[in-house]
Structure formats: C-alpha cells, structure tokens
Hints:
- The protein has 350 residues and is mainly alpha-helical.
- It is 58% helix and 10% strand.
- α1 runs antiparallel to α3, α4 (163-183) packs across α9 and α8 (259-302) runs antiparallel to α9 (307-345).
- The protein is globular and about 65 Å long.
Amino acid sequence: MNSKKIIASVVLGVFLTFFACNIFAAQPDVRHELAKEDKKFDPSETILEHIADSHFIHVGGKISLPLPVILYTDKGIEVFNSSHFGHEGEEKYQGKYYTYALEKGKIKAVNAEGNVNEVATIHDFSITKNVVSLWMSIIILLIIFLSVASAYKKREGKAPKGFQSFVEPIIMFVRDDIARPNIGYKYQRFMPLLLTVFFFILINNIIGLIPFTPFGANLTGNIAVTLVLAFVVLLVVNFNGNKYYWKHILLPNVPWWLYIIMWPVELIGIISRPFALMVRLFANIMAGHVIVLSLIGLIFIFKSVLIAPVSVAFVIFMDVLELLVAFLQAFIFTMLTALFIGAAVEEHHH
C-alpha cells in the first residue's frame, strides 16, 4: 500500500469515527438555541472558556458544533451528543443511568434538585475540541512525513522538488543544529523522535493561532498534553542512559556519607528536567492566547469604537509575535530533549 492510500485510509477512518459517534445519539438539528437573555461581559470567564477544552466546537457567535459524549459510569457506558446540554450548557440531559449536567466544561451526574450526585462514578472519554485538534495534527504529520518519504524514494539522488524542498531545510535544521551538536555520533537513532516532537509542537502551535474552529484549540497550552510529551522524554532519556550516566546518579564521585544527600538531589534532577519542559511549553502558549484574548476583550470592556483600532493593532502585533513563539517553543523543546539525551548517552572521557 502506497503513501497516498495510507493517508486516504487514515483521513477516512477519522472522519467515519467522528461521524458515527455524532450520529449515534445526535439530535436532528445540531444548532444550539440562542441565549434568551444577554449576559454582562465577563472577560475572565470568556478567556478561560476559550483556552479550556470544550465539548463544543465554536464556529462563531452563538453557533457551535456539538461533539460526542462518551461516559463510562459505574452502571455502564453512555453515549450521546453534547447538543443535549444546550448552547450555554444550561440544560440537563436524562441519560439511561443518570441525569447529567455540564458545569464549567465538566460533565457531572446530578439529582432532581440539580446537586451533584456524589454516589455516581463517571469517567469521561468524550471526543472534545482538543481531541479533534489532535487528530488534525496527526493527519497533517502523516501527510508531511509520508509525502516527503515518498518523494525521497522516487527522486533518490536528485535535488528536492515541490513540497519536499520546503520541508527538507527544516529536517536538515533539526539534524544539523539540534541533534548532532547535542547528541553526537549516536544522533541518528533519535532523529524520528526529535522530528516528531518538533513538527508536532510546531503544527499545534500554529493551529492554535488560527482563529476559526476547529483550528483554534489550545492543545499545546493544555498541561495534560505537555505532561505526556515530557513523560515520553523522561522515559527515552532514562531508558537510553548508559552505565556512566547511571554511575553519576547512583555512585557519584563524592565521599560515601554524602550519598544520603546526593541521591535525593539527583532524583529531583531527573524529574525536574522534563518538568521544566512541560511547564515552559504550557505557560508560553497559554500566556500568548490569554494576552490576545485580553486585548480583544478591551473593546467590549470599554464599549467604545475608539479603542478598537488600538486593540486590533496590538492583537496583530501579538499574533506575529506568537508565530515566532510557535517556532521558538518547538525549537527549545526539541533542543533540550536532544541535550538531555546527549547527556545520557555520552561516553566517559578520561
């Protein structure tokens, strides 16, 4: 099976999964009811709503695309559509086992009075906006790598052409400026990981800058996503550590009575490095989104057309800056990953 058939199969599979889950329990009309009364603008609530994960993909205004809700309860599995909660999440849905309500983006079982049912046990496996964004980034990654790999096979020994000529300088940059200097001659075995991390972070950072759904998901600004990336780095670094790496951690060249101090310090060092990767990426991406949304919110806070040109000008400036940050954070995360791997696989020098 060639790369085009693989890409087509992946795209079709994701589409059918998404479509089937929606049809399973969807209402005929996917549009939400408009809010019956206007609410006072709350900038903090609006900003937190946009940077958080959601069971809806907001198209614009009060129009949203509902997503499938998949709940594993202590009584069984519930599958229905988030449109049952209404546009603002103000409605309750009577499921097969429990009555459900959407509170601050979290689905909870409630009783007749609307209070949380403490007895019910619910595990949420729903397809949310971040999951859709994750699928999109996976499809884009497959398209990039499979098409470039196919071009290399067809044009072996020839100059790059078309999309290959666009991607190749980035791949060479990761190889020559990140992997080789920080890992050394063993860099080739870690190139798939470094390229995947770099492109995954870069693509999702750029997707988060696109202001229309489902592209506007704050995936790399979600600490759960950065936690998984950092955990993968932690495993790769420590499973590939050579005997000199572990000797430095377990038997450092200090008097034996200092081991009681050195072991906790080294353990903290092992954990703190991926922890720093996790927090740095999460904080920088989330902060950029918060600043942009805050600048837009100034128009509604002052309720003045005069503030709009100033606000829009700053938003454009921040978007350009965020585009730079998108590349910079992908580079920093990948470079530090290579640096940690290099320290773990480095041979001992006398």
